[in-house]
Write a structure and sequence with these properties.
The structure holds three protein chains of three kinds. Chain A is built from 22 helices and five strands. Chain A is mainly alpha-helical. The N and C termini of chain A lie far apart (70 Å). Chain B is of the alpha/beta class. Chain B contains nine helices and five strands; from the N terminus they run H-H-H-E-H-E-E-H-E-H-E-H-H-H. In chain B, helix 4 links the parallel strand 1 (38-41) and strand 2 (67-70). Chain C has helices at residues 2-36, 46-55, 65-83, 103-109, 112-124, 127-158, 163-168, 174-177, 179-192, 217-242, 249-269, 275-299; one strand at residues 59-62. The longest helix of chain C has 35 residues, at 2-36. Chain C has one domain (2-299). Classes of the chains: A mainly alpha, B alpha/beta, C mainly alpha. Chains in contact: A-B, A-C, B-C. The interface between B and C is medium-sized, with 26 and 31 residues.
């Protein structure tokens, strides 16, 4: 690995860490540059710190494994520009700098993706990114027109000054922009192809951080602009809850239908971010949303790096071509096991903490059916999680080459081990993140989470002790294992080879299809609602929209045809109309 | 390596030479538990299998003796060879028998397992099961009624309790003998092959 | 230090009682099913004999370290679930670790064991095992939905996620105050106990016994033990949530046995649904009943 590439990420991390303690703020009035009445501001808030840490963490992890991918200087330059843009988004205190950062992020992402994406996927990404950026610009301009300022500090008053129609329009435009970036279902058309075809070192960054920028933008909207608990905005709460719910449920089932590991994880991202969107619809949901952002970043970094390592060693991405790697790559298997336990949100590891907060927030708010749907989609997540690990590591190898694969290089293992250690630590000490979350809540004047010790995580409804859970599990596991080992009379024999399975008296050989679960979701199509989900895609809707656009353009063609005399006459007519209207 | 009749001889005298006759109270206890809980592999190998469902269902209720069915050879203690064994079935029986966990017992039903029974002059069946896998208990008849099968189970339980049901040890000790006989009828590749090489060693159809 | 010793003794007593009572219940299950089928059935202690017989087999087959650890994780998960459910809501005895957790923790711990076992079964390499696991996970998300709705309604009514609190607040049993919730949860409970019509994952013939197909000897004994302990833990949970908890061992045994008899009677009478059929049914009928029950409970005063 070329060590020079580590310089910039390390410097950036140091910069962010130094800023953590300070409360630096910077505001400048752009009147001197000819834009009177426009000020821009940067400020180190707790919310900014939280997301900045996620950004540099992902950057470090990605740069570490990027050394294996023979990248040119342009790649690294774009990656660094991207991280700077992300930090600009996070530290900005006004919508102008925010939009500048957003656009630089979109452009650098596009350029980075252009190295590996097929033209079709690239166009999908570009269209959605541009549409979302333009929608956001429209929303920002509506806000400016009411408040004459881009600053977050003036945003609340500006929003209050909007007429009801304009406020709804503003919210719809902003929501569209954010939902596209987050990948909420219905707006996710670009996401699966982009994540799957992006270079393997970049997909962790996409999933861990770039989708979080949409979350961050949504949080800024809810903290500085709109007060979601106020009665006129109940529709916003219902919209967020519904879209988040649909993302979780539909995303989980669509993930199950995939044969490609990266596409499965892409749909899993959609499902997981649905949780965050849903809990943000609740007045006190910010704590759960922040915790889950952290957990999701960690889990997706771990899983995507794991899959990248598998692809680097075997060259294969589909479950139908993988399998049986557990005994060739035991480290990778254990790391992925930790990753999926965190993703599923099971105790004793850290994923349960964020789920616990989210569920308690929904319970206390009284959104009971939403809570039931969230728990349902969490249970449905077990299926695609098992498919992921079975397709790659368990079962039987699908080709001779896999039977001789070596363990993945250390470059991939080290970041995974560190992230896994953090998640285990969060499992034992779930309360350790609460002070950081509480500083964010305190700055915005929201109710704080109760904090008694680092091992306990609690809300008003109750608390649990993470250290007890994890210790109990480890001790019981050791006790049962000791029991098994101490019965000497009953010897454990190892099977002679992988074909020695009870197969109704037959003996399978290499030709027998034994790697069953690689096609695990297919039988679910016979369940009516799952089949309905899997049969319909958003492609139909977007094809409809594009066909209408083509029809509209076809209508315009009559006026703007290639015929020069027609064009001239239309232009003259149009100019006369404009002249008359300006004279009025 | 012994000839067939010597093994038969040893079987009749098995009271004295069995290894699992209880030497200690632990052995006694273990055999007692093994006697009280018998899992029978759900595998009907021949026409004698028609008598198994009545034995295990309500009318004759083998479950009161602690006998119940098991789905896979890994979970089973007893395999019932119920009737004639064609070469095709013999292959699967041997494979299944080898996949069971020790201690395992074989209950042979019907006269076909003793001397070929009704199919004594068939080109396609084996005439003496003891040559191919070791048998603990024969229940003769064609085919034995559920009462006989239950009596066979009771006798098997008595043998297990006394530590005399040691066919699995016989198999391990005389493996070459059994393997030689198996290869004679099934060919080199005793495990089922999906081609028809079992034709070759019997002079064809 | 005295407190830690008391907790360890408490946990040990919970384990022993769950083991003994669980196995007795399974023996009784075979007896009661036999009476449904007009026969006698094995002695009540038959389940003990079965599991001890598997412990004293001469050999066990294993397919690698993950296969070995699968049943261990399943047993650890079952024990964790047992220890976080208090037996008696009024006293500290037999409360185990329940003061360190609550109902959300228990609901998720219930899934820890099966997931660990799924890893072991997958590592074993039997496609029938993987098939059984797939069906089990499919059944899981369908059967949990009515149960979650009922549990969420109870948590909201009692303003607490603590099991002992929910058990203590019932002047009349929740089963009679909120009958629709109880019926919805009961369907889920039948599936959780692995009874017909929702018992296709472990079906002996359809899926070659599913996840249990490659386990022999020690592992099978461990699986049987964890099944007994886990069933008892689930029974105690249902009694605490819907049948008013228990203040003594006799009352606990009586209530769990009544619930258990109902579940196995249901199972003895019905045939087995296919997996898509059970998912379809569970997501429509019990969920609908539970949703109506929730709306009535929350908004009906």
């Amino acid at each position: 690995m070329r060590y020079s590439v580590a310089v910039f990420p390390s410097l950036l991390t140091l910069f962010v860490l130094l800023l953590l303690g300070s409360h630096a703020a910077w505001q400048v009035d752009l009147g001197a540059f000819g834009l009177s009445g426009v000020s821009v501001a940067l400020k180190v808030t707790s919310l900014a710190n939280f997301f900045a840490v996620l950004v540099v963490l992902s950057l470090l992890a990605v740069t570490f494994i990027a050394g294996r991918y023979s990248l040119s200087k342009v790649h690294y330059l774009l990656l660094y520009l991207l991280s700077l843009a992300l930090l600009l988004i996070v530290y900005a205190q006004d919508y102008l700098l925010f939009f500048v950062g957003w656009e630089v992020m979109s452009i650098t992402t596009y350029l980075l993706l252009s190295f590996t994406l097929t033209p079709k996927a690239l166009v999908k990404y570009a269209v959605f990114a541009i549409a979302s950026a333009m929608a956001m610009l429209g929303g920002i301009m509506i806000l400016y027109s009411a408040g004459q300022s881009f600053l977050y500090a003036d945003a609340h008053a500006a929003y209050a000054a909007l007429s009801p129609v304009m406020s709804v329009l503003f919210l719809l435009l902003m929501l569209f922009a954010f939902f596209v970036k987050i990948g909420v279902i219905g707006f996710h058309y670009w996401l699966a192809d982009t994540y799957a075809e992006a270079s393997d070192f970049f997909t962790p960054f996409l999933s861990a951080v770039l989708s979080k920028m949409g979350i961050y933008a949504l949080m800024v909207l809810l903290l500085y602009v709109v007060d979601i608990s106020a009665p006129p905005h109940r529709w916003l709460a219902y919209t967020l809850a519904l879209m988040g719910l649909l993302s979780s449920i539909i995303g989980s089932f669509k993930a199950l239908d995939e044969d490609d590991a990266k596409r499965l994880l892409a749909y899993s991202s959609i499902a997981q971010l649905g949780y965050i969107v849903t809990v943000l619809s609740v007045a006190d949901g910010m704590g759960g949303a922040l915790y889950h952002s952290l957990i999701h970043t960690l889990a997706k970094l771990l899983l995507f790096i794991n899959v990248a390592a598998i692809i680097a060693v075997t060259g294969k991405r589909k479950f139908s071509e993988l399998g049986g790697l557990i005994y060739r790559m035991p480290h990778s298997f254990v790391l992925m096991l930790i990753g999926i336990i965190v993703l599923a949100g099971m105790p004793p590891l850290g994923g349960f903490a964020s789920k616990y907060l989210i569920y308690n927030n929904l319970l206390e708010e009284g959104s009971l059916l939403v809570l039931a749907a969230m728990m349902f989609s969490s249970a449905a997540a077990f299926l695609y999680i098992y498919k992921l690990i079975y397709g790659i590591y368990l079962g039987h190898p699908s080709s001779k080459k896999l039977e001789e694969a070596r363990e993945v290089p250390f470059v991939f293992l080290l970041p995974q081990y560190l992230i896994a250690a953090v998640t285990v630590g969060l499992g034992a000490f779930p309360g350790a993140v609460v002070p950081a979350i509480n500083s964010v809540l305190a700055e915005s004047g929201l109710a704080l989470l109760p904090y008694s010790s680092a091992t306990q995580l609690g809300t008003q409804s109750g608390s649990y002790d993470g250290l007890v859970v994890i210790l109990a599990f480890v001790l019981l596991f050791a006790a049962v294992l000791w029991l098994l080992l101490s019965i000497k009379h009953n010897r454990v024999k190892e099977a002679k080879d992988r074909f020695d399975i009870a197969y109704c008296g037959e003996v399978p050989n290499e030709g027998t299809r034994l790697h069953y679960a690689y096609s695990m979701g297919k039988e679910l199509k016979r369940v009516s609602f799952v089949g309905a989900i899997l049969r319909h895609t958003s492609a139909v809707f977007y094809l409809f929209v594009s066909r209408q656009l083509f029809a509209f353009a076809g209508m315009l063609r009559r006026l703007y045809s290639g015929n020069l005399s027609v064009n001239f006459n239309v232009a003259v007519l149009f100019a006369l109309v404009l002249l008359w209207w300006s004279m009025k | 390596m012994e000839e067939g009749f010597l093994i038969q001889q040893r079987q009749m005298e098995s009271d004295l030479s069995s290894d699992t006759s209880h030497k200690s109270s632990v052995d006694f206890l273990m055999n007692w538990f093994r006697k009280r809980s018998i899992f029978v592999l759900a595998y009907g190998t021949g026409c004698g299998a028609i008598e198994m469902p009545p034995t295990f269902t309500s009318r004759y209720d083998a479950e009161r003796l602690g006998i119940r069915g098991a789905a896979t050879p890994r979970q089973a203690d007893v395999i019932i060879v119920s009737g004639y064994c064609s070469y095709k079935t013999l292959r699967r029986i041997i494979r299944t028998y080898e996949q069971m966990a020790n201690p395992k017992y074989v209950l042979a039903l019907g006269s076909c397992t003793v001397n070929g029974g009704m199919y004594w002059d068939s080109y396609n069946t084996i005439k003496k099961l003891e040559d191919y896998i070791p048998v603990d208990m024969y229940v003769s008849g064609c085919m034995p009624r559920p009462e006989s099968i239950l009596e066979g189970f009771l006798a098997l339980q008595k043998e297990i309790a006394e530590g005399k049901a040691s066919s699995w040890q016989r198999y391990e000790e005389n493996y070459e003998f059994y393997r030689k006989n198996q290869e004679k009828v099934l060919g080199r590749n005793v495990a089922p092959a999906y081609d028809a090489d079992w034709y070759l060693y019997d002079g064809g159809l | 230090m005295v407190e830690y010793e008391m907790i360890v003794i408490d946990l040990f007593l919970m384990l022993v009682s769950a083991y003994v009572v669980g196995f007795l219940y399974y023996g009784l299950y075979r007896n009661i099913t036999a009476r449904f089928q007009r026969r006698i059935g094995p002695p009540v202690t038959q389940s003990f004999y079965d599991s001890i017989k598997f412990w004293v087999k001469e050999e066990t087959l294993s397919h690698g370290w993950m296969f070995y650890l699968g049943p261990v994780i399943m047993m650890a998960g079952a024990l964790m679930t047992l220890f976080f459910i208090p037996f008696f809501y009024q006293s500290d005895a037999f409360s185990g670790l329940s003061r360190y957790g609550n109902l959300f923790v228990v609901l998720y711990l219930m899934m820890l064991g099966p997931l660990g076992n799924a890893m072991g079964v997958g590592a074993g390499g039997s496609p029938f095992g993987a098939m059984g696991v797939t069906r089990g996970l499919t059944r899981l998300f369908a059967m949990e939905l009515p149960f979650y709705i009922a549990v969420i309604a109870l948590m909201s009514i009692n303003h607490s996620a603590d099991i002992a609190t929910i058990a203590a607040h019932q002047e009349s049993y929740n089963a009679f105050s909120y009958p629709l919730l109880f019926i919805g949860a009961l369907f889920s409970f039948i599936a959780m106990m692995g009874q017909s019509p929702f018992d296709v994952p472990g079906a002996p013939v359809e899926v070659y016994s599913g996840p249990a197909s490659e386990f022999s000897g020690k592992f099978l004994a461990l699986l049987m033990s964890q099944s007994a302990i886990f069933s008892f833990a689930k029974l105690v949970l249902m009694v605490n949530l819907f049948l008013g908890g228990a203040s003594g061992f006799a009352e606990l045994l009586l209530k769990t046995f009544a619930l258990f008899v109902f579940v196995i009677a249901f199972g003895a009478l019905y045939g087995r649904f296919k997996t898509p059929q059970s998912v379809d049914f569970l997501v429509k009928v019990p969920t609908g009943i539970a949703v109506v029950g929730l709306l009535l409970a929350i908004y009906g005063g």
